[in-house]
Amino acid sequence: MARWEEVLDEIVRTRRRALVGYAYLLTGDVTEAEDLVQDALFRTFRRGRAATDFALAESYVRRAVLTGFLDGTRRRRRWDGVRHLLAPPAPTDRVETVVEARVDVVEALGALAPRERACVVLRYFSDLTVHDVAERLSLSEGTVKRYLSDANGKLAARLGPLRVDEEDDLPVAPTPPARSPAPSAAPPTPSAPTTQRGAR
Questions:
Q1: Which residues, 6 or more positions from 24, have their beta carbon under 8 angstroms from its beta carbon?
Q2: Of 116, 157, 147, whose CA–CA distance to 26 is shortest?
Q3: Distances in whole angstroms, Cα of residue 37 to Cα of each of 3, 113, 147, 179
Q4: What angle do CA 29, 46, 31 make, to 5 degrees?
Q5: Percent helix, strand and coil across the chain, each rounded to 5?
Q6: In whole numbers, what is the pLDDT of the chain averaged over residues?
Q7: What is the distance, to the nearest Å, from the Cα of residue 187 to the centroid of all Cα atoms in its chain?
Q8: Please, are residues 87 and 102 in contact by the beta-carbon 8 Å criterion?
Q9: 21-50 per-position pLDDT tens digit
Q10: Does 97 or 140 have the greater pLDDT score?
Q11: Tens digits of per-residue pLDDT, 161-183?
C-alpha cells in the first residue's frame, strides 16, 4: 500500500467524524456536510499530494472543505435563510439538554451569512487567530473583525451574551437609538355650541 493510501485510510478511520462535524457547522445540513468531506478527500488525495504527513493532510482536507463551502455559496444567487434543522442522530444516552443546545447553536449559525459563518467557525471552533482566519479566507484582518462583530451580534440575539476574546479588538456596531412611542393623537376638542338667532 502506498504511503498516501495509508494516510487516507487513517484519516477516514480516525478523523472522518470530526471532519463531518466541522463541515456540519458550516453547512447546517448533515448530507451536505458528508458530501463536502467526501469531495475534500477526493481533491486532496487525487494526486497523492500532501499524503506523507497525517497532520498536514488533514489541514488540507479542512481547507478543501472550507473552499467547497464558500464556492457553493457563491454559486447560489441568494442564501437559503435560516434553516430549522434537527441535530444529527445522537446516541440514546445523550442528555436531552445537550442535544437541544446543539440545535440552538446550529440554527443560530444558520442565520449568518456564509462568510460570517466561516469566520465564526474558524475563529471559535477551529481556534484560529484573527490573522490566521484572514489568511485562510484571503481577507484583511479588519474585514474578518467586522464579520465576527456582525456575527456575534446576531448570535447573541439568539443565544444570549457571548464571551469574546478582548485581544480580537472587534468593532462594536452602534446600537440604534430606541424609538420613542409616537404621541397618541389628541381627541378633537369639541366646538362650543352655536346658537342661531332666528328672526322674531
A1: 30, 33, 88, 106
A2: 116
A3: 21, 21, 25, 47
A4: 10
A5: 60, 0, 40
A6: 75
A7: 51
A8: yes
A9: 999 999 888 999 999 999 999 988 886 665
A10: 140
A11: 777 777 677 775 544 444 555 55
| Tens of pLDDT, residues 89-112 | 444 444 344 344 455 778 888 889
Cell numbers found for residue 113 = 451569512
Please give the C-alpha separations between residue 33 and each of 10, 16, 89, 143, 181, in angstroms, as whole numbers: 19, 11, 14, 26, 46
Q: Which amino acid is at 160?
A: G
Q: How far apart are CA 83 and CA 101, in angstroms?
A: 16
130, three cell numbers: 484573527
DSSP string, 138-180: T--HHHHHHHHHHHHHHHHHHH------GGG-PPPPPPPPPPP
CA angle 20, 22, 23 (to 5 degrees): 65
Q: What digits encode the pLDDT tens for the residues 123-137? A: 888 888 999 999 999
